Amino acid sequence: MSENDPFREYANLIQKRITKYRNSSSRRSPGGSARGFGVFGAITAIGAISGLLWNSFFIVPTGHKAIKFNRFSGVGDFVYGEGLRLMIPAIERPIVYDVRIRPTEISSSTGSKDLQNVKSTVRIIHKPSADHLQTIYRQYGYNYAERIMPSIVNECMKSVIASFNAEELLTKRNMVTAEIERQLKHEASRYHITIDDVSILNLGFGREYSKAVEDKQVAKQESERAKYEVMKAKHEKQSKIVTAQGEAKAIQIVGEQMKKSEGYLVLRRIQTAREIAEIISTSQNRVYLPSDALLVSLESQSMEKKMERL
Prior knowledge:
elongated, 310 residues, three-stranded antiparallel beta sheet, single chain
């Protein structure tokens, strides 16, 4: 039993109080002294027994597991579940582990298959194996995750990222994540740690590669724009050709009609004069024009002859 043990200190304190009481009551009558010492002794005994019983139990909270350390035999092999548990005061002490899942974020810097510098951050959700808490405590201590997780995560990240080039790390991200998770589960099982999920939070590349990717995207956008301009020019050219062909066909038809009969030209002049008259009539200004300005002269002899032919 160590000198700093609480139970020993409590016993020493009781002994000092008894000695002090004896010294102070030595001048009293023998009967009164014995009677007073008997009452004080009973109270002291009850307090000692109560403290002993209080220190004989410990509580395992929800989501936790516990093992016991014995001063004589060391760490026990039995794992205790949730609830009130019994222990020997001053000889045994509980070691309580949180066996619920917990997230851990770890950053790593390594090289890809095409020798590009890659900075990555992964998020691992893990928990200790409840059936091997005594082994974890013996070999790695209470803060097992801080000692084990960084080393195995960095090793797995370097192994996986080195098997992909920089472009594949972006285009095949799900495959990269699955491979990291597979290797992490295998490595963590050796240390009795259960991996529930792995996700890549960030993938960063060197300045040179980032600049090359940016230039590639700009070149791709310019290429797409050039294709659009070429396609637009082709459509405009085709549209002009169709329009020119339509106009040529219309001119050809008008020429054929004029060869067959002059009445077609007279009819077109009348239609044009009607359009001009409608435009002038809707104007707010008053305009007076001779009939010749309307491209038709109904009083001319030639027009009368042409109308008679029609």
